[in-house]
Design goal:
2 strands, mainly alpha, 59% helix, 153 residues, single chain
């Protein structure tokens, strides 16, 4: 799992993805390029079938907007549910919450929760939201997990 927002232009597929319109197209472009790069480096397509890259477009925090009520409870701030929901409603999916340095998902959360710490509060939020809800709201993330599940048998 890598964050598109933070990837340098030198990453496989990153330059090509910049010209694409949708977040889904960009993520798929970079994932395919990363996978092909691993295949080229290892020279072994069979082994690389176990490698399934995932590009989260706009930070891990975007996924947390899958359920704003659970997100706000998970971080101990139920009073922020309406503010989080207002952000979420501007986008078709949580995966599309944009990536400007000023409005990236983590910046939006930090603006509402001074001192927001991803390692603790992010985990607490995910535990409250639950994987099934995130999968339901984040189709690209769900697709990646289905690929992993299929490989696991």
């Amino acid at each position: 799992m890598v964050d598109y927002y933070g990837l340098p232009g030198s990453w496989p597929g990153r330059d090509r993805a910049t010209g694409l319109r949708s977040t889904e197209e960009k993520a798929v472009c970079v994932e395919a390029a990363i996978r092909e790069d691993v295949i080229a480096e290892t020279g072994n397509r069979f082994e690389s079938d176990r490698f399934v890259p995932f590009v989260v477009m706009h930070e891990f925090e975007g996924l947390l907007f899958s359920d704003c009520g659970a997100f706000s409870r998970g971080i101990g701030r139920p009073d922020l549910q309406a503010s989080l929901q207002e952000i979420r409603e501007d986008f078709a999916t949580p995966e599309e919450i944009n990536d400007s340095p000023v409005t990236a998902p983590s910046k939006r959360v930090s603006d509402l929760v001074p001192g927001y710490g991803k390692p603790l509060l992010g985990v607490l939020a995910v535990l409250e939201i639950g994987l099934s809800r995130i999968r339901e709201q984040c189709p690209h993330f769900d697709h990646w997990l289905k690929q992993l599940e299929a490989r696991a048998g």
